[in-house]
User: What shape does this take?
Amino acid sequence: MSEFKPGLEGVIAVETEIAEPDRDGGVLRYRGIDIEELVGHYPYERVWGLLVDNDLDSTMPAPEPYEPARLTGNAPADLQAETARLAGEWSLGKLNEISDEQARIDLGRISAQMMGIVARSARLADGETEPVSEDVVDRGETAAETFLLRWRGESDPRQVKAVDTYWICTAEHGLNASTFTARVTASTGADCGAALSSAVGALSGPLHGGAPAYVKPMLEEVTAMGDPEKWVRDTLDAGRRIMGFGHRVYRAEDPRSRILKRTARELGSPQIEIAERLEEAALAELERRHPERPLKTNVEYYSALVLDVAEIPPPLAPAMFACSRVAGWSAHILEQKRTGRLFRPSARYVGPASRSLSAV
Ligand code: COA
Assistant: This one.
């Protein structure tokens, strides 16, 4: 086990019963259930229950009344800070000192609240300083509808479907960077607020959760230019990456991308045609340049279109991703608590050999 694997690619760090993408089959299953069977049949909060409790009748609780202390309108930063603060506000216990049942309660309370924090932060970014009245928010029948009501005071069924589908498709995806981060923090016995907020930080980078934010401007650029093939060639010649393509795990089509593409079409996304043209051009050119490595459309490409139907501004994409991933993170934090061990990998030292201070 002393072989060095940059990025830990292929290294098995945990055993999990929650989910792991099927690398070659292009299928994603949550606790054994193909996500195709969940989308449109169960709302997100029940999928949360499936992931965390292995029970589709279990559900993420409704958010309890709580006003975040100091929002800035930068949703990922607000989410990370406010999630960590909940540990203090609610006097959450350390994972190594509380029962599994208490950890499950803490995770449910925080998950529901995290969505509320993002909705409030997005409202502030829209220039609205007054919160939506709780009577209006309470009209929400699903987590997605409640989220949109808390943000905008109104909800359109197409937008609710867009958010719900996106959240279900991105609720869990095995040991990705943010989930690993959540497990590492949980492995130290930290509280659930600390574990979830550290995951939010890991998700905020463009190589993991932020790509949809880049897809919409990219599609606008391609539309303005009118020549997807040339745009792809110019971008790759300049050494840049095409956002929404490539994946660390999948070597086949990303099943989430298939569902989101279908949803974007069903919901009448105005960008579907240019997106399909760019996809075709990008897949062909990436295959030509990287015949050794399949670089297919990933979840974030069509996520951008679905989020656009719900009028989610691109900078909010990482926070939307975080809202959906609270399910996967919570499930992994609980699994880590039940079965895991403190993470402590090793580094191979390749710095200078022992030398005298005068040599520095
Ligand atoms: N556009 C252009 N080239 C890409 C690419 C993309 N989207 N994704 C990978 N490549 C190329 C790399 O340039 C590299 O080429 P090189 O060997 O000539 O340098 C090769 O493919 C392997 O890339 P690598 O970074 O080792 O792959 P990875 O498995 O570590 O990366 C991603 C996975 C997702 C980080 C990567 O594909 C990427 O940056 N995609 C764009 C961002 C994105 O969509 N993120 C959302 C992920 S769900």
